[in-house]
Amino acid sequence: MFEEACRYLTQHRSVHIEELTHWLTIPSVSSDPQCADEMVRCAEYTARLLTEAGMEQVEILPTRGHPLVTGQWLHAPGAPTVLIYGHYDVQPADPLELWETGPFEPHIKDDTIVARGATDDKGQVFMHIKAIQAMLKTSGSLPVNVKFLIEGEEEIASENLPTFLKEHGKRFEADIMVVSDTAMWDRDTPSITFGLRGLAYMEVECTGPDRDLHSGGFGGAVANPAEILARIIASIKNENGHIRIPGYYDQVREITDRERELLARIPYDEEKYKAGVGVKALWGEHDRTVLERVWSRPTVEVNGIWGGYTGPGAKTVLPAKAFAKISMRLVPDQDPVAITDMVADYFASQAPSSVTIKVNKLAGGKPFHTSVENPFMEVAADALKETFGREPLFIRNGGSIPIVAELRDLLGLDTLLIGFALPGSRAHSPNENFHLPTAWKGTEAIIRMYAKFAAIP
């Protein structure tokens, strides 16, 4: 099956490039109301790709927002069922002046296709569709049962998917979910992401007097909200970056010895890391490696702080209000709602009676983790090694993809995050791109992976 399927991919490569190019011309910007018709057109083309690949019961399912596209092939009795998740919506293309060509005018340069959505996530979903198509066209069957769930709202926090799945979750029952929306470690080294940090976000407002005051007439007698807010923020961590908020670490799940062993294999260069972010020294918990700090430890970070007069020149006021935006990155077993309440309570408890604290609780998402000893993960690693000629790295990611954890909770599925973007793919940025030789090689790895999944009881 493998050789014939790969031969099919090679023989039809030019057609597949044309199909991907057409998909990328559709400006499926989910956050832009003016793109509503294009979202429908993109869903229709996505359904067409699934149908032409050989998927059955392909449907465009309405939600309260943009539609979902689904399809399935369930003729492998006794074999596992794989749910393939992806999204056809894309980020806005701004700033347009930084694009080499129009963001929805795909072009190929140095074996790389450049367009919005090339790597996030149309190009990576396309790989799975073509892997399935190659197997069905050459052998008439698949080694596993397959279901597709391709949404149109990932870039706007999957606003309507959870509600839809609460009502229709049974149709997506499976043994494992596969998501390709992440990256390789480098051009030659594949990776499997087994953990993502969660997120909680808030805006804190500290209010003192009912208006800005003259700093000469009132300074020293009336509390300064900017000073108080800064003092509370400064108290959150000690000099080594350890968070002092009582109970903040109580639910933190420590990494296992096996995970620590896998992380130690990652070729980390501290000097290169510092140069990449433009700092002379790193900072944080001294008893943790840098990768542990950014992948498996929680944080509290100030994203912005302001108050009083910030214009040109001088204006001697004692500000009435000061504000800060605070984000918390969370690790497995921490709950974003509980952490948000905990941090909000801390601000309130540290504030003197001369000011009032108001907290506006904003975005949130749970952390995600899959055991590195999951049998599907071990088999996927074998497929990647056979295709790329080197062991994949098992990594975690300090960022967040909230819908992955939500899908886990709603569907009860472990998830494999296996991406084929390269570090320079510029997702969410101008000149987003996808390296085509890596895409073709990754498609071969997907074929191998599904074939190996069939042997898992």
From TrEMBL:
<feature type="domain" description="Peptidase M20 dimerisation">
    <location>
        <begin position="195"/>
        <end position="353"/>
    </location>
</feature>
<dbReference type="InterPro" id="IPR011650">
    <property type="entry name" value="Peptidase_M20_dimer"/>
</dbReference>
<dbReference type="Pfam" id="PF07687">
    <property type="entry name" value="M20_dimer"/>
</dbReference>
<keyword id="KW-0645">Protease</keyword>
<protein>
    <submittedName>
        <fullName>Peptidase M20</fullName>
    </submittedName>
</protein>
<keyword id="KW-0479">Metal-binding</keyword>
<dbReference type="Pfam" id="PF01546">
    <property type="entry name" value="Peptidase_M20"/>
</dbReference>
<keyword id="KW-0378">Hydrolase</keyword>
<dbReference type="GO" id="GO:0008233">
    <property type="term" value="F:peptidase activity"/>
</dbReference>
<dbReference type="InterPro" id="IPR051458">
    <property type="entry name" value="Cyt/Met_Dipeptidase"/>
</dbReference>
<dbReference type="GO" id="GO:0046872">
    <property type="term" value="F:metal ion binding"/>
</dbReference>
<dbReference type="InterPro" id="IPR002933">
    <property type="entry name" value="Peptidase_M20"/>
</dbReference>
<dbReference type="GO" id="GO:0006508">
    <property type="term" value="P:proteolysis"/>
</dbReference>
